[in-house]
Design brief:
SH3 type barrels; mainly beta; elongated; 165 residues; Elongation Factor Tu (Ef-tu), domain 3
Amino acid sequence: MGKLFKIGQIINTHGVKGEVKVYPLTQEVDKFKRLKTVLVDGIEKKILGVKFQKDRVILKIEGIESMNDAETYKQKYIEIPRANEPELPPDTYYVADLKECIVYDTNEKELGRVFDVISTPNNDVYWIKEPKELLIPVLRDIVLDVNIDSKKIIIKPVGEWQDED
């Protein structure tokens, strides 16, 4: 099947007819409207209905007919094949790809793997958890190169852009 993207996590049931409440793991929640099938717990299932409720998505999924059925899917991920994702513009990356990257500074010092990407109003931030927690603002003068193919991100040395506490 190839690489899969997690686009949501089932967090609860919704109603008595087997609908599930999904926490979206994508900024493009409209994507759920276009889906015909998804993988739930590794099994392909048809999407029978999509609704939106505040910052959550309500899905009616094939084979989930009751609240009891829906209950068994809590905490499971909604996934789609990577092939279903559109090509991105230059210098734009999928978080899943960034999370496979190791960050180095220009002195070739390894700083750690991207644990997550935090969205802020001004710019994204790469979050490194280990070996030492580090938050890296995604700005052109700090992040110098991102190479998804080699799973490598090059940044300016931390001392040049971060104040020491």
